[in-house]
Amino acid sequence: xxxxxxxxxxxxxxxxxxxxxxxxxxxxxxxxxxxxxxxxxxxxxxxxxxxxxxxxxxxxxxxxxxxxxxxxxxxxxxxxxxxxxxxxxxxxxxxxxxxxxxxxxxxxxxxxxxxxxxxxxxxxxxxxxxxxxxxxxxxxxxxxxxxxxxxxxxxxxxxxxxxxxxxxxxxxxxxxxxxxxxxxxxxxxxxxxxxxxxxxxxxxxxxxxxxxxxxxxxxxxxxxxxxxxxxxxxxxxxxxxxxxxxxxxxxxxxxxxxxxxxxxxxxxxxx
Length: 271
Prior knowledge:
Layout: H1 3-13, E1 18-24, H2 30-43, E2 47-51, H3 62-73, H4 78-89, E3 95-98, H5 101-107, H6 109-118, E4 123-125, H7 135-143, E5 147-149, E6 151-153, H8 158-166, E7 172-175, H9 191-205, E8 211-214, H10 220-227, E9 232-235, H11 237-245, H12 249-266
Parallel strand pairs: 1-2, 1-9, 2-3, 3-4, 4-5, 6-7, 7-8, 8-9
């Protein structure tokens, strides 16, 4: 049984959406990222995504780019990602790695899966890897009992959604906007329809797969809006912005706790 799916099921049983938080490893430092992710868990995040810093982040907006740049300048490496996963997973929160495919391919697909599992990781989110090109990863994930999370988008056809969801385990990631990541003032108007289409296709296949929606959620009101139609609310840039704007680490952690509490309240009061 997927620990991520279990977290989603627990949230559903409580009559709410799951709260999924993202932070890149190594930002603002390796230990700082660990402390921030632990604070997110303590304040209400059900699942944590740890980003693997990458030098060519095609989908990431300026906020995540700034954080990833700081992590790379600070010397963050893949080993630090596994160290972060291990520390966060020790809290009991399912912990995934979100990464572009190149670093995994370079590391060695089976070796990456093995070391992620050894660190207590729950699986991998691969935004730039399609199932058709992910044969090695699908095999390694199955061999090491890791979740496989692929993305569906507003532009995805029904046929494409069917293929992607068939290869997912844990949950499917619905990207609610076209373009790079970043907090938005409003949830994309196409987001509910994307979730509705995806859920219909999942049901048609007889799958039991939650849908997490992300890219743009910036406050508790938006979290409540998304919780009204999705199984999970995924937040990244808003958390990173709190750390980027903080004058010192203690203030950053306080800001992370407060924002997580706001989101946690939001997913419990769907609009």
